[in-house]
Each structure stands twice: as C-alpha cells, then as structure tokens.
Amino acid sequence: MSPSDILTLATLAALLLPVYGHRDRHEGTTRQWSLSETVSFSSPEFLKLLPEMDEKMVPIDHAKVPDEVCLEMVEALANAHWKMKRPGIIHTGIILAEGAEIDPGWVDSVRKLRLLPLSFLATQSLENVKLYFWANVEGTHPLIQEIFGPLMGQYGKYIEIKKFDASAEIKKVCSHYESEKSTGELTAELVKIYESQSIVASKSDLMRAILLYNYGGAWMDSDVLLVQNLAPMLEEDWAVLMYADFVNPATLSVSRPGSPFITAWMGNILALGVNKSWAAYGPFMITDMTAEIQRSVANATCHVLPPCFFEGALSRAAHQPNQVAPLWDNFFSRLNRSLRSQVAYIDPSTKHSTFGYHWHNRWNQKIVDGSVAAEAEKMYCKRLNISLS
C-alpha cells in the first residue's frame, strides 16, 4: 500500500464514518458526534459564503477564485454578526534551536516576533479571544521577555505565554484520540514522529496539529499580521489556498478540540509515521486531505479560503486603488511612492480587502526605517498607547 493510499484511508476513517469518537476530557467518557450535527457557531455571513467557496475550490489542483469574487467575499464579512459559543484562542509560537538560541541568520528577531502580538491586540475582539504564544523554552527566557515586556503591563490579561512541552501535549492528544492501540503505544509513536524531525518547519507543522487537537482555535504563523477581527470565522475548520494544489496551514482554524478535521489530520500523521521530508505533515498532507474530502465527502467538514484572505501578495484582489499588498521582499525595505497604499493595506482602521498579511519568512532582512514593517510597528503602538523605548 502506497503512502497516498494510507493517507486516503486515514482521512476517510475520520470524515466518512457516520459518527466519530473523541473522549470527553472532563467526564472521561466518549461522546459521539454525528457529522451531520450542526456544530457551526460562526457568523451567518461567513456560513453563507462557505458553499460558494467550497464549489470554487473544486478540484483543488485547479482551484481559482476570480479576484473580484474573492474581494467581495472579504467585504461581505466587514460588518458580520457573530456570537462566539466559547472563548476563542489564536495560537502562534516559535521553536528555538538546540540550546535555546535564536537562529544566527535572523535579524531584528524581537521586533519581528512582536509584530503578530501587536497586530492581535490592535485588531481582535479582546474580550472574546486570547493569544496563546507557545515556545519550547520557559516564559522567563530573555527573548520572550524582550518581546512581551512592553505589552504585558497593559495587555497581559489578553496574552498567555506557554511552554510547549511536546511529550506532555502529545500524551494529552493520545489520551483522547480513539484508536485500537493503547494510549502508551500511540504516545510513543507520536513522540517518535515529532522528535525525528530535523527541519524546524516540520516540527512546527506537528506542533500546530497537536495544539489545535488539544485546544481548538486558530493558528497563525509568527510571520503573519492580523488586519481585522477573525471572530466571524473562528468557529469553523479552514485553511488557506496559497495557489492551486497548495493549501498552506500557516493560517488555519479548528472549530473545537477534536473536531472531525483535526482528528483526520492527526490520523494522517499517525498513518504516515516518521517522514523527514519538508511539508510532509503540513501543506502536502493538508492539500491531499482536501482533495480526498472533495472526492468523497458530500458536506465538507473543513473549508479552504481563497488567497486574498491571508495571501494578498499572491492575489490581484489585494490591489485596490488605495491599498496594495506588499511584496514579501519589500515588506522590510524602504519604499517611497507606494508606502502609503501598502501601509493602508494592513491598517486596521481602513476598509479591508484582507484578514491578514503573511510576509513569508524574511527573517534575514533588516527592518529598515520607512518600511511597511516599521510603519506598522509605529501604527500599532500609537493605536495601543504602547512605548517600545
């Protein structure tokens, strides 16, 4: 049996059965949810968009949403009516190399890692959503203290800094994941998969899958800025199309702990076993799962958002008369003529043509004064009344 066949079976096992099991962590019992049970709690405006979105993403290897349609979808959520059933969580984080040192190739690391928390505080409904910042070091680590020191006095109640203890979180996954194997066997398998990874991106893919299985919520990579409130979309399962046949889990949401989607993802990870290839547990796996769901599941249990929602640099829908998504290589560089329109693209106070901006790993570039990144930092600090000096 080929790896793709194994992944197909794992996806279908979680998504095609009439019911699936997720052990209730409070009662110690197994609750059965029907896949036809209504479990969507997001805004009616977002729910209304999902059938059209799903239709335009089929087949995923040729998915394309016209620019004007993508923009209309974002704008339809501008004044969405939403009411969250439970407190929301937006996760992000960092995995430091052995010895808990920052990558020597990274430049202006503290300022860059602070941009997402600043954008979270400037854009989200803080009474309804918290930011969980995960790291494989203690919160007392100098890097963590430098990032969050200026924020915690005023905004500490909206941010939780958490140590990612892989073994403990994996054990929590396996104590609730339904399998013929024992919790101990499953835990050993998943720990082996995680610890075998030498590519940080692969560890990060596993980290987000583990955390979303345990806690639900949304994951945003640390190189993402939030542009507007995600609350209308938070209680659905979705990832984002980067381009045809490549679904990028840099920005994704899980409707609740142990949802059918995250259970299927975890099943695929366990079915694949140890694989040291880049993106094996992330984009490639999520894209293959999406294709299988499209072929086999009548009512999608997860959705793929078009690029303009978070990947504006790849979408012409992001180019409006007074708003232009920065190119990745320009985000930290000084711009003159186009600076105002590019800052407007990420400004929370403007009419939005996106929900977030992903600047794609430009960790080795210096933040130049007068760049979009530098102006964003100033804009957030002014809006939040924060001093970084």
UniProtKB/TrEMBL annotation:
One of its GO terms (cellular component) is membrane. Residues 1-21 form the signal peptide. It comes from the Eukaryota. The keyword Transmembrane does not apply. Coiled coil: none annotated. Keywords: Signal, Transferase. GO terms for molecular function: mannosyltransferase activity. GO terms for biological process: mannosyl-inositol phosphorylceramide biosynthetic process. Pfam families: Gly_transf_sug (PF04488). PANTHER family: INOSITOL PHOSPHOCERAMIDE MANNOSYLTRANSFERASE 1 (PTHR32385:SF15), MANNOSYL PHOSPHORYLINOSITOL CERAMIDE SYNTHASE (PTHR32385). This is Alpha-1,4-N-acetylglucosaminyltransferase.
